[in-house]
Structure formats: structure tokens, C-alpha cells
Design brief:
82% of the residues lie in helices and 0% in strands. The chain contains 4 helices and no strands.
């Protein structure tokens, strides 16, 4: 009878707290080990997929650039032929146009760089720093 009373008070059996904690730690270790193995296997597959995607994108950009060069060369020769002008002058005009467009993009990029990024995050971090410096005197400010 005393044995039945012990079982009813200890539903895990005769194991003590230390044995239960060791069993929990072992189960957690097994769980995380299996998840890490799964993550490792999937990350290898994802790496292969990303490398293939990167190779395709690089090839597409290179072929686009080559096609663009041929398009500009054809346009230069065609315009020079139509205007009865040396192709050299038309090529110089095309180069100048490209340089002006590139300069415009650089000016736009420079204008966008002056705007601060992550304004809301910086504001929240500033509030947190202020709260930490005034920790003893105030409560945390509300959003």
C-alpha cells in the first residue's frame, strides 16, 4: 500500500528531480540536434540554389551589357550612315549623352544619401538611451 501512495504522489515514477532534469536536458539536446541536422541539410540545398540563381543573374547582366554595347554600336553606325557624318562624331555624341545621364544618376544618388536611414529605429534607440540615463528618476517613456 505504501508503494501505491508513493506512485500517486510521483507520477513520473521513482525518478527524482535530478533524473528528470537530466532526462529533460537529454530530450532537449536530441531535439536541437535533430533540428540543427535538418537546418544543415536544408542550408546546403539553399546554398546550391542561391549559387545557381547568382550564376544566372550574372550571366543575364553580362549578356544584357553586351547586347547594349552592340545596340549602341549599331545605332552609332546607322546614324552616321543616315547623317552622312563620320561614325567617330556620332560615337562621341553617344558617349557624351551616356556620361550626362550617369552624372544625373550620381546627383540623384548623392541627394538620397543625405537623408538619414532608419529614422524610427534611431528615434526609439535615442528614447531608450534617454530612459537608461534617467532610470532612477523616471519611468520608461511611452511610444
Amino acid at each position: 500500500m505504501a508503494d501505491e501512495a508513493t506512485r500517486s504522489r510521483n507520477p513520473a515514477g521513482h525518478a527524482g528531480l535530478l533524473d528528470n532534469l537530466l532526462a529533460l536536458a537529454s530530450a532537449l539536446a536530441g531535439f536541437f540536434e535533430s533540428r540543427f541536422a535538418l537546418f544543415s541539410k536544408e542550408s546546403k540545398a539553399a546554398l546550391v540554389q542561391m549559387l545557381g540563381l547568382a550564376a544566372c543573374l550574372i550571366a543575364a547582366v553580362m549578356l544584357f551589357a553586351i547586347g547594349y554595347v552592340f545596340l549602341i554600336a549599331s545605332a552609332v553606325v546607322g546614324l552616321a550612315h543616315l547623317a552622312q557624318v563620320s561614325w567617330l562624331w556620332v560615337a562621341l555624341a553617344a558617349a557624351g549623352t551616356h556620361f550626362l545621364i550617369a552624372l544625373a544618376f550620381l546627383l540623384v544618388a548623392r541627394g538620397r544619401m543625405t537623408k538619414p536611414l532608419f529614422r524610427a529605429t534611431a528615434s526609439e534607440l535615442r528614447k531608450d538611451r534617454e530612459w537608461l540615463t534617467n532610470l532612477n528618476t523616471t519611468t520608461r517613456p511611452r511610444k
